Each structure stands twice: as C-alpha cells, then as structure tokens.
Amino acid sequence: MKKINLLKSGIVVSIMTFLSRILGLVRDVVMLDIFGASGTTDVFLVAQKIPNFLRRLFAEGAFAQAFVPILSEYQLKKDHYVLRQFISRVAGTLGGILFLMTLLGVLGASGLIAVFSPGFVSQPEKHQLASDLLQITFPYIFFISLTAFAGSILNSLGKFAIPAFTPVLLNVSMISCALWLAPQMDTPVFALAWGVFIAGIIQFALQLPFLWKEGLLVKPQWGWKDSGVRKVLKLMAPALFGVSVSQLNLLLDTIIASLLITGSISWLYTADRMLEFPLGVFGIAIATVVLPSLSRQHLSDSKELYNKTLNWGIHIVLLIGLPAACGLFVLSEPVLLTIFQHGEFLHEDALMASYAMQAYICGLVSFMLIKVLASGYFSRQDTKTPMKIGVIAMVVNMVFNIILFKPYGHVGLATATAISAFVNMSLLLAGLIRSGALSFSKQWWWWLTRMLVANLVMVAALLWWMPTLEEWRAWTATERILPLAVTILLGAAAYAAVLVLLGIRPRHLKAH
Fold first, then answer.
1. How far apart are the first and last CA of the chain?
2. Smallest Cα–Cα separation from 291: which of 386, 373, 388, 383?
3. What pLDDT score was predicted for residue 320?
4. What DSSP line would sit under 190-256, residue for residue?
5. What Å distances lie between residue 270 and 340, 431, 432, 454, CA to CA?
6. Those residues with Cβ within 8 angstroms of residue 229's Cβ, 6 or more apart along the chain or in another chain
7. Which ranges of the chain have pLDDT less than 50?
C-alpha cells in the first residue's frame, strides 16, 4: 500500500469537516431562529441526541476503532478475495445487529426517553412529543453506522475526502426541512426529525459508488462465526467505553439538564456545538488520518515511526487546539451573540450558553488529545485499557456532576465534563509513556514552550483590541460580524507571527 501523506490527508479532512461545521452552525442558527431555546427545542434535541450518541459510541467510536486495525491487518497480510470476504461478513453481521437495535429502539422509544430524559416523565406532553420524534430519528443509527463502516474502508485506503464530506448532507437535509417542510406541518418540529431520517439514507448512499470503484462493494453475509468478525466484535466491547467516553459524559449532562430550568438543554447544546467545531475540524480529523498509519506501523514493528506519528498528532493538536481554546474562551459571549442571538434565541440565552461554553472550552485540548491518544491504543488492538480509563473518567464526571449541578446549574455540568476529559487524557498519556509506545525529546519541550508564549501574546492582543462586552451587546447581529472577524484575524496573526519569530516553520508541521 502506498504511504499516506498525513499532513495532506489531515488538511483534506479538516477542510471537509470545516465545511460541515459551518453548515452545522447555519443549521443551528436556523433551528434556534425558528424555535428558540424553548421546550420544543429541548425535546427535539433529546430525540436527536439519543441516536447521535449511539452513532458516536457504536459506529464512529467502538466500531471504527476496532474495525480499522483489523482491516489494516487483512490489507497487509491477505489477498484481495479474502479481504472482500471479510468486509462482506462484517457488513452482514453489523447490518443484522443494527437492524435489531433499530427495531427495538423504535418500539421502545417511550422507555428510552424516560431513561435519557427523566425530567420529561412528569411532563406528559413533552414526553409524548419526544417519543414520537425519537421513532423518526432512531433509524438514523442504522444508516449512519453503515456509513461509518463504508467510510472506515475508504479511510484505510487513504481516501479521506468523501467520508469527511458526508456529514455535510445531514446539515443540508435538516436546513432544507426546517425552511421548507416545517411551515407545511401542524407540528413544525417534526420536520427536523424527518430531516435527520432522510440524511441517514443519503449519507449511506453517497459511499456506495466509491466502494464500487475500489472493488470493495460486496454483498453482505451473516458471518458471526468468522474469525475476523469475532475479532472485531471482541475489540468493540471494551472500546464502547474508550474513545466515546466524552459522549457518555455529554449525554449525562443532558439527562441531568432535563431536571433543570427550561432552556438548560439548549444552552448546553449550543455551547457543545461551539466546542465541536474545533474538535471536529482538527481533533477528530487528525485522529482519523493517524489511525490507519499507526495500525500499519504497529503491524510492521516500526517503533520509531510509530512514536513519530503519535508525536506528530500531539504536536498538531496542541498547535491548533491551544489557540482555539484560548480564543474561544476570551470571545465566548461575542461569538454566541454574533452567531445565535436573533429571532427566538434571546440575549439571555446567549449569555447563559457562553458560561457553559467557557466551562467546556477548558477541556477542549483534552478532548482533542483523547482522540489522538486513544488511536495509540486502538492501533495496537488494545481496547481494554481505554475502556478502563474511560470508566474512571465517567465516574469522575458523575461525581462532579452531583457536586456542581445544584449550585451552578448547567455550567456545573459543563465543568464536570471538562474535568473528566482532563483525567481521561492524562491517564491515556501516562499509559502510552509507561508502555514505551510514546516518548518526548528535549526539542518537544522547546516546541511546547514556544506555543505557550505565542498563546499568551495572542490572548493579550485579543484583550487589548476587542470591544467591551457592553458594545457587543448593544450592536445588532449584523454590526457584530466585522468586529468579530477583525478580532479573530488579529488574534490569529499575533499567534502566527510569534511562532515564526520563535523559529517554527511550515516544514516543521510535516510528519516524518
């Protein structure tokens, strides 16, 4: 197999993900403009979050991390016929399990809502609406999991663009349904649910021509007894609590937030969406491109290359994640005011969401590093260690949720999630170092020092330049756009200039 250019692949995935995130923001702006931070929005977000959570936990989390290393092994050591047989049996087994899961989810929608949003049980109208919406959105897990399966195959071949572009279709579908279908319905929020359902189908359909082109579009076969399938399933079980633990923590936030005042779920969702922007564009993008390379390097016993690839992933995450976290923390309220504060989404909503956003942002770098560090374990077909660490992180999150949610409300929940992410990241990092899979040179610490200096200068530049919060609040949404753009560009320019002055050049960003 040809060598994958990690920087080039990372840029491709980041660009596609950036496009998806931009459309995701447009989707959220449209949704909040129409429905506001209302009880109806809270109900839809719960109905959307359950299949979305299962997607990240099951498809993009546990399955992808277990499947890609085994797929890489087949690609390196088996012939094309055996590879096709393996893919066929994984597809059939995965599809069968997903179909059963989807059927149970649709039939048990009311029970799922009671479990995931206990605060709705005492409000029959909310509970019924959420159950009806979930029956429409739940089949998304079937289609999007098969999409993730197909995308994993393409990623392993170095074809990153189409899988990275696919989420754009979800946003296009939901925006279209919100604008054109919602006005035609007696209960407009159902249009959003149908937007999710339709997106699942078209996202899966997009992958098929590209699999056919690679000669890997195969007929699914039930293969429960196949050794390769069993190996994937064996790795999946502990992986469920590995890299996806952050999603479990965010879901716990939603469950507890359903017990808080109306709007809490929407405020947390809005804050999380801003967190997802840099996390998806950079953190997940880097993890996506390093996993196939790490898997091949481990199988080839290339320990030096393995260490360099992990180091490169951490370098890039810190280079982008630190300024993103610092910038978003300083500009949290201006950003939310500019993007969301209009229509039914009020200034008070933007303010409350900004508090949660600042709390989440404290864990942004940890969230991003978790994605890369977990790949270091999954590439070696070790899913048990991330599982154990994930359980510890979940317990930490639950403890701090209980401690913080009463005195600090939704902000306490976001803070608990950030603390949990830091614990998760620290334990993953310590484990890789202890095992000898990861080590840092003296030059690495000099690199980190230069980044920290550049971030301090950037924050100082932002605080010196940016208008006061009173000015941001007084302006209209249109009036805020130019000052926000100029402020962001100034901060980015200050950060880049300091890095250049301290000797960091574009060639240093390439993986060796």
1. 17
2. 373
3. 87
4. HHHHHHHHHHHHHHHHHHHHHHHHTT--------TT-HHHHHHHHHHHHHTTTTTHHHHHHHHHHHH
5. 9, 34, 34, 29
6. 86, 89, 90, 93, 223
7. 1-2, 512
- Structural element, H or E, at residue 481: helix 477-501
As given in the structure block, the two tokens for residue 491 are: 């901060």
Domains in the chain: boundaries: 1-239, 241-440
Instruction: Tell me which residue has tokens 């899961």.
Output: 101
The CA distance from 300 to 295, in Å, is 9
Q: Which two tokens stand for residue 261?
A: 């005042």
pLDDT of residue 37: 56
pLDDT in tens, 415-433: 998 999 999 999 999 999 9
SS3 at position 272: helix
How far does CA 484 lie from the centroid of its chain?
25
- pLDDT for residue 208: 94
Distance, CA of 490 to CA of 510 (rounded, Å): 26
Hey, is 152 helix, strand or coil? helix
| Residue 50 tokens, joined | 């359950």
User: Alpha helices, DSSP H only, in 436-476?
Assistant: 442-465, 469-474
User: Which among 299, 312, 282 has a CA at the least distance from the CA of 438?
Assistant: 312
Give the pLDDT of residue 441: 82
Q: How far is CA 122 from CA 113, 127, 206, 355, in A?
A: 12, 8, 42, 28
Give the residue carrying structure tokens 């007894």: 225
Give pLDDT, residue 419. Answer: 94
Nearest CA to 127 among 114, 108, 145?
Answer: 114
Position 197 scores a pLDDT of 95
Residue 343 is predicted with a pLDDT of 58
Of 190, 148, 172, 441, which is closest to residue 288 (Cα–Cα)? Answer: 148
pLDDT of residue 1: 46
How many Cα atoms occupy the beta-carbon half-sphere of 408 within 13 Å?
16
